[in-house]
Design brief:
The chain has 433 residues and is an alpha+beta fold. 27% of the residues lie in helices and 23% in strands. It folds into three domains: 8-78, Uridine Diphospho-n-acetylenolpyruvylglucosamine Reductase, domain 2 (2-Layer Sandwich); 85-196, Uridine Diphospho-n-acetylenolpyruvylglucosamine Reductase, domain 3, CATH 3.30.465; 199-395, Vanillyl-alcohol Oxidase, Chain A, domain 3. The protein contains twelve helices and 18 strands. Helix 9 packs antiparallel against helix 10 (361-378). The two termini are 34 Å apart. Its cofactor is FAD. This is Oxidoreductase. Residues 26-197 form the FAD-binding PCMH-type domain.
């Protein structure tokens, strides 16, 4: 049995078990779900897992589409009680966030202080998973990846030892946590430096689907020259749906935002736009409940250069009725961090491409080969993969996410902090890599 806990242990049949065994698009059947209330609970659960030889999954928001946050027959460490958000030093804008918090809670709490953090796009998504993998969102070009704001983390290691990782303590672990995924330990709290953001100008300009190539071509030509305050993306809807230019200007001045956005607008008839100043928390979408049987397959990669062939392939892929394509501008503050400063290995690229097939099991089965074919077609113009936007778990995925030099360095940290590879429900770096 697990030692004394402040939280609870749920087993099949207990109230709440069915909810916590499920993630965004996956449903496992773990032997135990431990609802942790602190580092002591995490340590006790890990001790039990080691003793019993149980697979360990860590559940924050539970939105990774590879389903790492659940398993069959193992133990799930649910961190949802660890959801505190505290501004510990307003003068330094220093914020402490529990490893089980979600970005919606974070953004609303910080808004009361006139602050924000560059996060993902979605209110429901967990802080921990996004920070450990990267954090590409609507303030990225202005303030960098979400993980670039992390200055310290409280971590429970595989043997139950609590440590603090920062630029002065366990520096190798601090480097590895920022981009290395869940490979090194369970983060019970992060400390980050927030930014003075209140309102932003946000919205979408819609164009006819048959002009998607023109929209994407024009945007690709001009997005890199936009001011850092402007983060933008083009969405190609499945089938004959519209092409959409989405923008977020990090500031509430509509005139300045329009000046920044104007060069991105192609000479194509618009179907309308909804650009407007809004409080930052309002741009984080609330993911709806999904119908039974809903599935999602995701591929992502980074653009080295936009070419006519790349644009043609992206537009062709979105012509399928179940495939959506998103192309998001990078650069700006992302590239002002040294490539080896963190374990996130994909700085210096023009954009992130994400392709998604979604629907019932049959639709996704038809869509996955289309995604793989798209990745093959665009391979000459892209590189790598983004750990937070993926649904497969193959050796090739890990190799794409972590280039050889990064992987070797991560493996060395893994040998120090998790030599038994307890934390392997992730894009796994083994101690032997």
């Amino acid at each position: 049995m697990i030692g004394r806990l402040d939280g609870e242990v749920l087993t099949p049949g207990d109230t709440g078990y069915d909810e916590l065994r499920r993630t965004f698009v996956h449903a496992g059947r773990p032997a135990l779900v431990v609802r942790c209330r602190g580092a002591g609970d995490v340590a006790a659960a890990l001790d039990h897992a080691r003793t019993e030889g149980l697979t360990v999954s860590v559940r924050g928001g539970g939105h990774h589409t590879a389903g790492f946050a659940t398993n069959d027959g193992g133990i799930v460490l649910d961190l949802s009680y660890l959801d505190g958000v505290e501004v510990v030093d307003p003068a330094r804008r220093l914020v402490r966030i529990g490893g089980g918090a979600t970005w919606g809670r974070v953004s609303k709490t910080l808004a009361g202080y006139g602050l924000a953090l560059s996060s993902g796009d979605t209110a429901n998504v967990g802080v921990g998973g996004l920070l450990l993998g990267g954090g590409i969102g609507w303030l990225t070009r202005r303030y960098g990846l979400a993980l670039d704001a992390v200055v310290a983390a409280d971590v429970v290691l595989a043997d139950g030892t609590p440590v603090r990782a920062s630029a002065t303590q366990h520096q190798d672990l601090y480097w590895a946590l920022r981009g290395g995924g869940g490979n090194l330990g369970v983060v019970t709290a992060f400390e980050l430096v927030a930014q003075p953001v209140t309102d932003v100008v946000y919205g979408t300009v819609r164009y006819p689907g048959e002009r998607a190539a023109d929209v994407l071509r024009h945007w690709a030509r001009h997005a890199a020259a936009a001011p850092d305050e402007l983060t933008s993306a083009v969405d190609l809807a499945p089938g004959d749906g519209p092409a959409m230019l989405s923008v977020c200007y990090a500031g509430g001045d509509p005139a300045a935002a329009e000046t920044a956005v104007r060069p991105l607008r192609p000479d194509v008839p618009e179907l309308g736009d909804d650009l407007r100043p809004v409080p930052y928390p309002e741009i984080l979408a609330e993911l709806p409940g999904l119908p039974p049987g809903f599935r999602m397959a995701v591929r992502s990669t980074f653009v080295r250069e936009f070419t006519p062939a790349l644009i043609e392939a992206l537009v062709a892929a979105s012509a399928a009725p179940m495939v959506a394509v998103n192309v998001r501008a990078l650069g700006g503050a992302v590239d002002r961090v040294a490539p080896d400063a963190t374990a996130f290995a994909h700085r210096g690229h023009a954009a992130l491409v994400t392709a998604v097939a979604m629907g019932d099991e049959l639709a996704v089965a038809h869509g996955e080969p289309l995604l793989d074919e798209l990745m093959r077609r665009i391979d000459p113009y892209v590189t790598g993969a983004y750990p937070n936007f993926a649904s497969t778990d193959r050796p090739a995925d890990v190799a794409a996410m972590y280039p050889a030099a990064t992987r070797r360095r991560l493996a060395a940290v893994k040998r120090t902090y998790d030599p038994g590879n307890v934390f392997r429900r992730n894009y796994n770096i083994t101690p032997a890599d």
